[in-house]
Specification:
By secondary structure, the chain is mainly alpha-helical. The protein has two domains: 106 residues, Serine Threonine Protein Phosphatase 5, Tetratricopeptide repeat (Alpha Horseshoe), CATH 1.25.40; 65 residues, no CATH class. It contains ten helices and no strands. The chain starts with a helix and ends in a 6-residue tail after the last helix.
């Protein structure tokens, strides 16, 4: 079983400590492992934002998120794939990494600037716009559909574990015109 499969099992069982320990081990052995850093950042964000935990654990998780965000940014800040995914994570937890929402969105914009033909990044550029404007809804819906038809995009998302699944679900939501399925 590879580390991503093991991580998924830990996540499904809400065994956060084992998940964090696994990712810390991977990162310490492979300090340039983009997926391990993204998985760690997403897992920490998800636990902090979506799960129940003791107050003492919350402070620890928050300090870990800040640490791994800063550490990974120092390594991958010029990599569009990293900028996109960490930008999406930061948009859901900007207060934990000491960013303003605009700064988190700028990470995604930088990814799009560096790789303007990537459907995921194009979708993200639209999804940050005012959804009260029907033209923006049409744009995000159109790019969501294109991204979901692109096998390279789907393969990329599937390599990102829970983070990729979250974004695939978001694409599916927007591809349906923003109507829950």
């Amino acid at each position: 079983m590879n580390w991503k499969e093991q991580l998924l099992k830990f996540e499904q069982n809400k065994n956060w400590k084992s998940a964090f320990d696994l990712l810390q081990t991977i990162i310490s052995k492979e300090s340039s492992n983009l997926d391990a850093y993204l998985s760690m950042n997403y897992l920490l964000m998800n636990v902090l934002v979506e799960e129940n935990y003791d107050a003492d654990e919350g402070e620890f998780y928050a300090s870990m998120l800040k640490k791994y965000f800063v550490e990974s940014y120092e390594i991958f800040s010029q990599v569009p794939e990293y900028l996109f995914f960490i930008g999406k994570i930061a948009c859901m937890s900007e207060w934990y990494v000491d960013l303003k929402i605009e700064e988190a969105q700028n990470l995604i914009r930088r990814a799009h600037h560096l790789d303007p033909k990537n459907f995921l990044y194009e979708w993200a550029a639209y999804s940050d716009l005012n959804m009260g404007d029907s033209i923006n809804v049409e744009g995000v819906t159109d790019y969501s559909k294109k991204a979901l038809r692109d096998t390279a995009v789907l393969e990329q998302l599937r390599t990102k574990g829970s983070l990729g699944k979250y974004l695939e679900n978001a694409l599916t939501y927007w591809a349906s015109g923003g109507v829950p399925q």
